[in-house]
Each structure stands twice: as C-alpha cells, then as structure tokens.
Amino acid sequence: MDGVRKSYNVGLPNEAEVLHGISFSLGRGEFAALIGPSGSGKSTLLNIVGLLERSTAGSYRIDSEEVGGLDDAALTMRRRTTLGFVFQFHHLLPAFSALENVTMPALMREGRVTPAQRDRARAVLSAVGLADAMNKRPGEMSGGMQQRVAIARALVLEPPLVVADEPTGNLDNASSDEVFALMRRMHAELNTSFLIVTHDPRLAARCDRVLEIVDGKLVRDGPASAA
C-alpha cells in the first residue's frame, strides 16, 4: 500500500476521511498484528486489504498488480484466489457440516468441489485437530472448535494471505491461546502471510511485526519485540 486514503460520504457536506495516507508492504510468510484504539480505522484498513472495500486514493498492489482499477468481477476473483478470511464470529453455515463449510471456498470459486479438493479439506481439518468432527454441524461444536473450522476454511485453498479480524475476540483465554497457536503453526507450515487485527496486547506481542494505527494514521511499524 502506498498513500492509501479512505473517505466516506464523498462529495457530501458530511464527507469524512478515516484513513490518511497509509503506506506499508507485507511480504510472503510474514505474521503481523494490526493494533490501535477503537475507531482508529483498523477494520476499514483490513477491509481494503481484503478487497472488501475500495480506497478513495492511493495505490494498492498485490503481487505487483494494481487492484484499484479492477472491476467488481475481477476484484471478486482476485479475492477468492489470493485471500483467506477469519473473523471474530466464525460465520459458518449452520446447516452444513464442518467438511462442507471448509469446501465452500472451492465451490464459490469454481462452482463445484472436486474429490481432490474434498480430500484437501479433510486433510486441513485433520491438521487443525478436527479429524473426528468433520461431520458435525457448527451447533454441535464449541466456540474454539468452530473457529478452528473457520481457520481451516481460510487455509484450504492455500491463499498467499490470510486476514483476520479479532479472530480470538469471542473466545475465552484458553481457547484464544489455542486458536492463536494454531494460526502460528499453520503459518509456519504453509508460509502463508497473516495480518491480524487484535485488541489483545498478549497476542500482538507474539506476532513477528506490529503495525499500529491511530486516528487513521500509521504511527508504528516494527518488530513486536520493540514494544
């Protein structure tokens, strides 16, 4: 990102700029936290990184491709091939099993699920410790288990980048530590980049890099150990 700005109600009397020239780059295999007080612009920035919102100004490149000029269809395809998402609330489909939820990205991207993709989903669920829960529906699982399904869903197509918005914010401390440790392990095994919004300083300190945003400006970008 280079000089990214985001305004709402553009051209109206109540126009408000919430991001003021954000610049940073994230390399393959980095594990970074995005922190800042409530209302600082973290979620807006994450939505732009995740191609869920467009910036108002500035440049955003993924693998050297400028994505700001892509039309909606191309942006959707870029999102499906490049990004995995984990949110505070898992957003699993309640009528479907864990395995069916994890195969959903393949279904959305290609319109079908191949036997190889189903096998991959089983392998990822096993890797996150849910080999015995593949046929359970979300309502039959604990919060920590549901979040592990969400992580498996984000990783099943091996995207270069996973963006996570308060992925442990709805969990107790024990489940939070378990889910965070799982993300670190999957990051190491797959060399996937992670950008994680968190309000928990304990988790931010366990990331490799911390970006801090205050009042829509990036005020810190450095190793977590420098905190």
CATH fold title:
Rossmann fold
Query: Uncertain runs with pLDDT below 50, 5 residues or more?
Result: none
Q: CATH first level: which class?
A: Alpha Beta
Number of strands: 11
Helix content: 25-40%
The CATH homologous superfamily corresponds to P-loop containing nucleotide triphosphate hydrolases
The H-and-E topology, N to C, reads as EEEHEEEHEHHHHEHEHEE
The major sheet is characterized as: 6 strands, mixed
- Count of all domains: 1
- Whole-number mean pLDDT: 85
Number of helices: 8
Evaluate the radius of gyration: 18 Å
Q: Decide which structural class fits the backbone.
A: alpha/beta
Instruction: Please tell me what the overall shape is.
Output: globular
Oligomeric grouping of the chains: single chain
* Strand percentage: 15-25%
Question: What's the helix and strand layout?
Answer:
Blueprint lengths: L1 E7 L7 E7 L8 E5 L6 H8 L7 E3 L1 E2 L2 E2 L5 H11 E5 L10 H5 L1 H7 L4 H13 L15 H13 L5 E5 L7 H18 L2 E5 L3 H5 L3 E6 L2 E7 L4
Parallel strand pairs: 3-9, 3-10, 7-8, 8-9
Antiparallel strand pairs: 1-2, 1-4, 5-6, 10-11
Helix pairs in contact: 5-6, 6-7
Folded structure, characterized:
The protein has about 230 residues and is an alpha/beta fold. The chain has one domain (about 1-95, about 145-225): P-loop containing nucleotide triphosphate hydrolases (Rossmann fold), CATH 3.40.50. It has 8 helices and 11 strands. It has helices spanning about 40-50, 70-80, 100, 105-110, 115-125, 145-155, 175-190, 200-205, and strands at about 1-10, 15-20, 30-35, 55-60, 60, 65, 85, 160-165, 195, 210-215, 215-225. It has a 6-stranded mixed sheet with strand order 7-8-9-3-10-11. Strand 8 (about 160-165), helix 7 (about 175-190) and strand 9 (about 195) form a beta-alpha-beta unit. Helix 5 crosses helix 6. It is globular, with a radius of gyration of 18 Å.
